[in-house]
Task: structure prediction
Amino acid sequence: MKSGRVFPLLLSALLITVGGGYWLLSSAGTSSADTRTTLPDPKIAQRYAEKPNPLGDEGVADLVGSGSNDEWACSSCHGEGGEGSLNVPRLAGLPAGYLIKQLNDYQSGARYNDNMQFVVKGLSSDELIALGHYYAGLETPPSAKPAFNGDLDRGRQLALEGDWSIDAPACFSCHGSSGWGVGEIFPGLAGQHPVYTFTQLNDWHNGDRSNSPIGLMKSVAGQLSRQDMQSVSDYLAGLVPPQPRTEGNAANPVDGSADQAHQSGDNDE
Result:
């Protein structure tokens, strides 16, 4: 990182909890009642994950495989193993809390997608929680591969190192050393379908997606060109996807090597 250069989001605001609300501190380190605002709970995904699965895997199996009433079966789009395809995301192995938050955001309108709005509108809170835990526990072989003919070296740089000449931090600085995610808040990126990853980056970039409590992804994606987004999406697609967590196990391996996990270009076709 260049001397004196710090990710602009960290310069512009620091977020701390104060009496149930949040204070935004300016880069000068000052605060006042005028700057106080109420923001979404940045730990809501963790709170969702702490709720036990109220239905059990067997109880959610019909919902996944057959649907319920007017709701489509999850597997009709996301595959029997949560593997996804093209612009339908891989769900297998993603954090339960993250998945539950996204389902709730679709239901509330904080995140928008026509299909997902239709699917979740009739689901109960218990069903949303059960679905998150169900997909978090799946172990499904990788199926993604690069789709954009992106520059994999550039994608690797953005994922592992970032590019401070454009104020872009490394993807893995938040999403874990192998792109397997961190905790319940930061989802795994490795092994995700590149069309989906690109679409999400582009939506963050354009402001079409905004369900991050402190706007972190909008700030990151806003620094990337279309070519950068395609390159990093292709690079991430070639990594081994996250594996299901076991109770008490960390979300991401601290000693995993993303380069060792990356598939060679000769195997991408």
